[in-house]
Amino acid sequence: xxxxxxxxxxxxxxxxxxxxxxxxxxxxxxxxxxxxxxxxxxxxxxxxxxxxxxxxxxxxxxxxxxxxxxxxxxxxxxxxxxxxxxxxxxxxxxxxxxxxxxxxxxxxxxxxxxxxxxxxxxxxxxxxxxxxxxxxxxxxxxxxxxxxxxxxxxxxxxxxxxxxxxxxxxxxxxxxxxxxxxxxxxxxxxxxxxxxxxxxxxxxxxxxxxxxxxxxxxxxxxxxxxxxxxxxxxxxxxxxxxxxxxxxxxxxxxxxxxxxxxxxxxxxxxxxxxxxxxxxxxxxxxxxxxxxxxxxxxxxxxxxxxxxxxxxxxxxxxxxxxxxxxxxxxxxxxxxxxxxxx
Length: 342
Hints:
Layout: H1 11-63, E1 66-69, H2 74-82, E2 120-132, E3 138-153, E4 166-173, E5 176-178, H3 179-183, H4 188-200, E6 215-217, E7 229-232, E8 239-240, E9 257-264, E10 271-273, E11 300-305, E12 311-321, E13 330-339
Parallel strand pairs: 5-6
Antiparallel strand pairs: 1-2, 2-3, 3-4, 3-5, 4-9, 6-7, 7-8, 10-12, 11-12, 12-13
């Protein structure tokens, strides 16, 4: 008697083969999904890196012409309080300027040795005006602006439930005319003509026009000193130590925003400055001492060291992505900016 057997797979063999095939397909699918997720995460991280660099590069370009970086002292706090932020985005509860170390180096804060601030304030040379009076004489006058970067809460602000909750605001002031340049013009008629030109933004010797400049600033005294700021009468060129009524300025001296205003640098860009609650976002690199109750320093930290002739500013900026979905994405960007005080 002979036994016969049909060639091919039996039922059990087929089930085993299908199980193996399904396992291989699942593994490949999982690897593809992981690869796509990693690629997407890398793209999002690059976007945050580019955004961090864009913000600090813009600050760097102005700081190359800086004339003073303000620290956490009487003069710095007076300048910060002089800025009119009434129409600007809200500030966080703690707005602290860095303490300038004239001889030391950048370092982490320790109790009793606090350098770090969470805001940046400096003045820079905006332009040098050259004007020819009807007398035929030409004069050069320096014009400055003040820049202030500070943290602003978004929505309900920082919380443990959501990443970020903070924007970075850039305030750029109105033009401020250098008093030394003005008083170097000894002819009172020419001086008044130059001031009227600056106040009314008439063309200079190159037929260029700039923003109107209404305020003369004595830079060698603190800004809250009486007479440190003077307003120009746009018709006569006469300087007034008090605010001229009917000119649209607050009755008490304040430095107003300029044409650029106060801008939220991260608005509509799916990014936020990391808060103290975002422990995943590089908290180990923090410079300032953490204060959860007061809300300091968050992901924007500033230190300033060096003498006036060789001053350096360290800026640490940590951004987190605010869009939902995927793994949390963050970027820590730290750079040192050259600055001058003159």
